[in-house]
Design brief:
This is tRNA N(3)-methylcytidine methyltransferase. Belongs to the methyltransferase superfamily. METL family. Its EC number is 2.1.1.-. InterPro entries: Methyltransf_12, METTL2/6/8-like, SAM-dependent_MTases_sf. The protein is α/β, with parallel strands linked by helices and about 280 residues long. It has a single domain, classed as 3-Layer(aba) Sandwich (Rossmann fold), CATH 3.40.50.150. About 30% of the residues lie in helices and about 25% in strands. It has ten helices and ten strands. It has helices at about 5-15, 20-30, 30-45, 55, 85-90, 105-110, 155-165, 185-190, 215-225, 265-270, and strands at about 75, 95-100, 120-125, 140-150, 170-180, 195-200, 200-205, 210, 230-240, 245-260. The model has no long low-confidence stretch (mean pLDDT about 90). It binds S-adenosylmethionine. S-adenosylmethionine (SAM) binds near residues 101, 103, 148, 150 and 154.
């Protein structure tokens, strides 16, 4: 992102000073699960496309990438209807997958998919901000956790709880693969007044939340709070050019990889009650 782009974006964002009232903020946060469940009731499996790009971006997902003697185990948090999971299961015969979401309807869609088979995939309902992953998955047994457009759905004050929860099931040396919306993304700049809860946090028309990440915020969550090692943390900018209307605009994403320390004791001690 160049300086001129950032300056323009900041000017647009600074014009929106009105915040959603406290009562409604609480309601959107309390009813997040219900609103996502309604989303899947309306859209069934038709909203998101299969994410066929993930093994191009993350080498850890390719066949032959080994973490240890055993075949890799992956957990996809906020799996929705499985658009991340299916291409990986098809393309990487070595991997087995846990997939969770707090929308029971989404998890039912995953289980109903013809590619779902309990020998390689296990889907379950879990709110990653409050239900312990370690109640379903053995502690420190997962090589890869994928967080693909899910942290943006969490209120910022609950994001650190989700990181701590993941750390309980991640293996020493295991990796978190992260992709989500970045600050100054076109969608952030397009929110009309009346949708902002706080800086970088908005509510969509359907009541779901959308947080826009800076690379600094990711570092705060995963390195400072989680004690993980940062392997990659960057903005991915995609320019959209509408020739007819002569409009240039940018989709901005954050893409990152973090690694758990090799020593389990270091992970445990990183899981302090840091509030960020
Ligand atoms: C934008 S969708 C992404 C789905 C999937 N990761 C993909 O790449 O297609 C975000 C998903 O996160 C889920 N989600 C939001 N907050 C959650 C939470 N606290 N615990 C578990 N899942 C959550 C939503 O139900 C939704 O399915």
């Amino acid at each position: 992102m160049d300086d001129a782009f950032i300056a323009d974006a900041q000017q647009i964002l600074s014009a929106d000073n009105s915040l959603v009232p406290e009562f409604w903020q609480k309601k959107y946060k309390d009813e997040a699960g219900r609103n996502w469940d309604k989303f899947y009731n309306r859209n069934s499996t038709n909203f998101f496309k299969d994410r066929n790009w993930t093994d191009r971006e993350f080498e850890e997902l390719r066949p032959g990438h080994t973490f240890s003697e055993q075949n890799p185990v992956l957990l996809e948090i906020g799996c929705g209807v499985g658009n991340f999971v299916w291409p990986i299961l098809k393309r990487n015969p070595d991997i087995s997958v846990y997939a969770c979401d707090f929308s029971p309807r989404a998890v039912d869609f995953v289980k109903a998919n013809e590619l779902y088979s309990e020998d390689r995939c296990r889907a379950f309902v879990c709110d990653i901000t409050k239900d312990r992953l370690a109640d379903t998955i053995p502690p420190h047994s997962v090589d890869i956790v994928s967080a693909i457009y899910v942290f943006s759905a969490l209120p910022p004050e609950k994001q650190a709880d989700a990181v701590s929860n993941i750390l309980e099931i991640l293996k020493p040396g295991g990796r978190i693969l992260f992709r989500d919306y970045g600050i100054y993304d076109l969608a952030q700049l397009r929110f009309k007044s009346g949708h902002k809860l706080e800086n970088n946090l908005y509510v969509r028309q359907d009541g779901t939340l959308s947080y826009y990440f800076s690379t600094e915020r990711l570092r705060e969550l995963f390195v400072q709070h989680g004690g993980l090692v940062e392997l990659e943390n960057e903005y991915v900018v995609k320019r959209l050019v509408n020739v007819k209307r002569e409009i240039d605009s940018d989709r901005v994403f954050t893409q990152a990889k973090f690694q758990a320390p090799i020593d389990t004791a270091a992970i445990e001690s990183a899981m302090t009650s840091t509030t960020i």
